[in-house]
Amino acid sequence: MILDEPYNALDFEANREVTQILERLKGQGKTILLTSHQHQYLEKLCDKIYFICDGEIVPFTEEIREQYFSV
Fold first, then answer.
1. What is the dihedral of CA 47, 61, 1, 38, to 10 degrees?
2. What is the chain's Cα-based Rg?
3. pLDDT tens per residue, range 8-62
4. What is d(CA 40, CA 16) in angstroms, rounded to the nearest whole number?
5. Measuring CA to CA, how many Å separate 11 from each of 15, 24, 46?
6. pTM attached to this predicted model
7. DSSP string of 14-62?
8. Closest CA to 2 of 36, 27, 28
9. Is-contact 11 24, C-beta < 8 A?
């Protein structure tokens, strides 16, 4: 399954429903490729996360999280 920004413009309840569906599919061994600007969902759902940084595709690491997503 390929999903492009599945959490974009959803309310709280719809976010929860999408997450539950994706967790169920993952539990069934389904392969899911998704894009999102909301890394908190990716970190919860994904086994592997990649980040586009300066035009390069790199693994999402703690260093990247701190550099780009820390408040």
1. 120
2. 13
3. 999 999 999 999 999 999 999 999 999 998 888 888 899 999 988 889 999 999 8
4. 13
5. 6, 20, 21
6. 0.79
7. HHHHHHHHHHHHHHTT---EEE-S-HHHHHHH-S--EEEETTEEEE--H
8. 36
9. no
Phi and psi (nearest 5°) for 60? -75, 115
Backbone angles phi, psi at 41, to 5 degrees: -75, -40
Let me know: does 43 contact 49? Beta carbons within 8 Å.
Answer: yes
Give burial (CB, 10 Å; 0-12/13-18/19+) of 22. buried
Report d(CA 36, CA 71) in Å as an integer: 19
